[in-house]
## 1
Amino acid sequence: MSLYSRQGKDLSRYFPDLLEALARQIPPGCVLDGEAVVWAGDRLDFDALQRRLVASKAGLPALIQERPASFVAFDLLAVAGHDIREAPLEQRRELLEQLSADWEPPLNLSPITRDRAQALRWFEELHHAGLEGLVVKGAGQSYQAGVRQWFKVKRRESVDVVCGAVIGPMDRPQYIVAGLPVEGQLRIVGRSTPLTAKAGLELAAYLHRPQSPHPWPEVITETILNRFSKDKGPVALTLVEPLMVEISADVAWTGNAFRHAVRYVRPRPELSPDDVILPARLHEG
């Protein structure tokens, strides 16, 4: 029994607890598509999951004891050694439900519905547990490796953050670097997607050089903006006088940062950076 990432990396050694459960409850010759998750109470703990993937052999047992992993099955790709990827999703799902009928934790079957009202209820309620949104698939679709035949509907929220720096020249900024108060200090919590030319010019009208010592350095590493980036190179910041801006962000947090790039919406010069509040969900992350 083995666990592989979507990129084909063998993750088996990081999840011995899942391998034991899978070997006990899944018959030979089955291939599942799913996801390993770690729960902290009633919320997904993405940080704990990532710590598994960088843990040393000596440190792994403590992480397993502290935060056991679970496996959520999405799809069934092979049964008794027979490749069923060409079968429509509804048939694969029926076989998966039969296979999972006697499962016990930490194995779980992902919920599914054809009822739009039910899907909307999930969309409104499940983000409190740290779920980003819903995945929509066609019942008649086959499984095509490497081809995305589904789409994800993510829940997004409007958040006011401090623009403490930009990437690119001040008169034509390319990205904003967002900050929020963490443990009493203005910390970098992410960056935006690339600004359009119109948005960059709009924002530039409100940008000014810092009037007092700035809490951020002029050069940071890429991992500060994206802790999971493989690029360890430097990133030059154009420091600016802190300015409040509105962004649109999905609900996925990682530690004290946005997990994904945010979208710039508009400047909020009427708000004071001194009054910014760390969103409760980010604080909980």
## 2
Amino acid sequence: MTPSKLQGAADERKAGMDTRKLAYFVKIVDSGSITKAAAALHVAQPALSQQVSALETELKQRLLIRSKQGVQPTAAGHTLYRHAQTILRLVEQARQDVASSGAAPAGRVSIAIAPYSMASSLTPRIIGEVARRYPDIVLHLTEIYGGVLSEAIKNGRLDMALIYEPGPIRGVQFTTMIVEDLHLVVNGKGPLAVEAGESGDITLEQAARFGLFLPEQNHTLRQVIEAGMRDKGLSLRLVGEVESVPSLTRLLRADMGATILPKSAADALFHEEDFRVLRIVEPGLQCKIALCTPDHEPLSEAASAVLMVLKEMLQEMLSAKYAR
């Protein structure tokens, strides 16, 4: 072996764990089988097994449990898998950012928007404004709940989110945009409206007498409502857990129960005249809408551009609201 080749081999040994090994390991875990991973990667199975062995030797940990059914990561393997996903995503993002440096922002940006919030009504404006300013950015919009949000953002499946703020979560940061009072929403023409009375307000005790349709327990809105009632020694009368806005609208229109939402969400989702929106008082309940982003990694150029658009829209909406 020539001196230059010897030096190259030494440099490779010094470099230790490389991204190729990590990519192979992630594919094996995702496939649940070294054989399937080898076929997908077009790599010989013995060579793939050697890569795993090299990782285990380097880390001095067993990473995979092998059986007739395939492979499963050990506890150490799960830890490496999680970090490997982050490393590979950062490497790919670096390649994309360097390639597009100096050009207009481009690429795919994923946003989660909380259902049961006024943020969901902003979707057409968000898509329209991003398309106007940044035609090479493709937006991926989804509705998601706080319970799975932190993992989705930490693992890079989401770039950002507009959601009900759930409180501190490791790995993500929240920028509070709106603090709103909660309101009871009922069919304005049915028997439940008679129970609600003529005032524009309703006490929490009165609201607790209504059968309610709410999202499931991992939703921050549900947690705020339950905590408020618990503090007052009230019981929640849950009629059903509904996470579809069209279904919720149909249920309220049929006068089968009521729901509780922030005013902006109630106005956006139940703006027809046949619904009544009553502010909850004595005590009032409040929730926060926040922008959520990762706290440990910079956003891509495209995601940063979309984040700026979102902040501008929310600022305009707040200015219009409080200018009245």
## 3
Amino acid sequence: MIEKVTNKTNFEAIEVLRFPLMILVVFVHVIPVNLYSMQPYWRTNSAYVLVSELISRHLGQIAVPCFFLFSGYFFFLKIYTFDVQIYAAQIVKRLRTLLIPYLLLNIIFVLIVLLKNFVFGKLGMAQDELYFSIQRASFYEIFWGGPFLFPLWYLRDLICMMVLSPVFYFFLKYGKGLALSLIIVGYLTTWELNITGLSSTAFLFFGTGAFMGIFKYDLTMLGARYKGCKFLISALFLGMVSYFTATPYYEYLIRFFIISGVISALCIGNMLLKTKKVKFYLSALSSSVFFIYAIHEMYIINWLKGGFAKLPMANNEWGKFIAYFTIPIVCLIVCLCLYRLMRRFLPNLLAILIGGRMIVKSVKINLHGV
């Protein structure tokens, strides 16, 4: 039985998860998009493939669904009735927290790419693929179909979910468990609308969060009990996903794993609360999550990958291991330094870019998902 929400301290398990989930996102972007199957024999290269695929390809897939879940939950948690006035107020609020950052960050990345390639051109250096992508792309592709700053696809889909929030409210309010079950079945059968912004991942996890928020259930209780059993189920699905990678079964199995993995992540969130120092630092770092999510692909991680590729160790299998774990750490440090600098010298601009997701004097619960 899922308990009803009692107080805000129940949300601390969500808050401490946000930075660890951001770490997973960075790891996802370290490796190429190609899927690699399991190697039938043991050698350094096969170990590297196994580790990188486990972390970046599989474990990393739970991060964005968690953010959708949190967003849907907090969107509906304080709503007890849904009418035109409430809907209008929520949409106006999301213009500041979602749409304006979405547009500005894409524009800034386009300007950065143009500036970088202008300078490189003056220096007689080659222009990069991103520059040529801008030349080929339409306005729609840059700001929606891509988007150009690709990690913001999450924000794009979240904007669509917010626009459709009345549909979620009435469908789940009156359809209850049956309505949620239909969304789950659609996700597990890999059914997609094939409409940009309306992914099944967004529908399921925003919808599940919406369901928990509408009925005022304590979302963190999904990870409060039977942790061992939940971890075991996740591990079994993870094993199957790894074994059947690059096969026709992969897409079905990864979705079962993501659902179990999200629940296991909530279990970990509850466990992290038991150590005060860990809880304090992770809660403090959570204010930087959206900023890191938005800028880490603005050349930062790709330049780091390019820099490591030029080192002698890049041709060594153990060197790949070192680079795989070093690049995300350095990327996070660079992003955190930029965040601290902007927070100190350009706080107003930073506030606009991250939609008001700032902690001024104390750690507060973030109600925006990322």
## 4
Amino acid sequence: MAKRVVVLGGGTGGTLTANRLRRLYSRSEVEIAVIDQDDRHVYQPGLLFVPFGLAHIEEIVRPRGRQFHHGIDYVKSAIDHVDLSARTVLLADGSTLNYDVLIVATGAVLVPEETDGLTGSGWMEKVFTFYSPEGAAALGAALSRFDGGRLVVNVVDMPIKCPVAPLEFCFLADWYFCERGIRDQVQLTYVTPLDGAFTKPVASKRLAGMLAEKGIELVSEFNTGEVDGKAGRLVAYDGREVSFDLAVVVPLHGGARYVGRSPGLGDELNFVPTDEHTLQAKAAPNVFVIGDAANVPASKAGSVTHFEGEVLVENVRRYLAGEPPDASFDGHTNCFIETGFGKALLIDFNYDTEPLPGHYPASVGLPLLAESRLNHLGKLMFQWFYWHGLLPGRDVPGISSAMPAAGKVPAARKD
């Protein structure tokens, strides 16, 4: 009798996992069902470009159902909760799906209502986010009307999807206003709860230097407690204030709400406690987690999801075969960071290794920790690869889940 794998979420992680499993097993061996509440798959890295007119929503959204291989059942429904003891998923319409293996891939969701005032006066008028299709499109209209003043980019708290995206927005805004000939009339400010520009010290130092070079003010250790859209100010819990004429806010993130209705599955933020090396949920050995839904100490970025997929699918295979799991996922992450003027930076790191200079994926490859036109073209090309390589679950020659050491310049020892 065929085993049943149920995948919760039809985004990046859920889609590539379902497709990889379908290639591994026949339908008579394993039935695969994917559940999601809508049929709109968004290429999320493209949202960054929408406010600047460099991409359009219709170019980065495709039907979810068309991304799955033949033999995968797609169920369009909201999820009410998961019953771990009964091994069932209860859907919003009251129907249930039994599973032998459950894969949680429902990502992270925006919770702007958790920040005082954020969705109040000024929301979608002078306070925006580009982390949703609707917000990115509305922000684009606002930027086209903006002719001077203080533009503040604010990260409310971590974790967030694609931690480098707010920095990229600053760099692209610098370029955008230069192109419009009004850069000297715009004050750009980056406000973050971190103690620097980024989470990894080496990259943080490099990125802080780039902000300074471009005349972008950095305000660190600012924990936003209130967004006052009417008065145009951010207020931190410690009483500090940052004024703005236009605010681009990255709201608080949490896991999908059904996680909180599923006893034993999630934490207080609705993320799923997960073994950082095997990607098994700590709640049950037949539950696996991929992508932004997991609470592993890796960036919530598409590249992480891509690298996780190889290990996760192998561990589903091992679980079904009664074998011990593979604990080889090392937190491998790489990020293209758009820096404006047709250039980008690339960083590559994992749980234990800082971003290092050199090249990726080997000694001949894309330059690391250095701005280049080649990296910018790499980021643009990634959209094609996303739809035609990553989501279909194809292997990429020379690219594996483990972070490569080849091509990198080792860090200097501190004796």
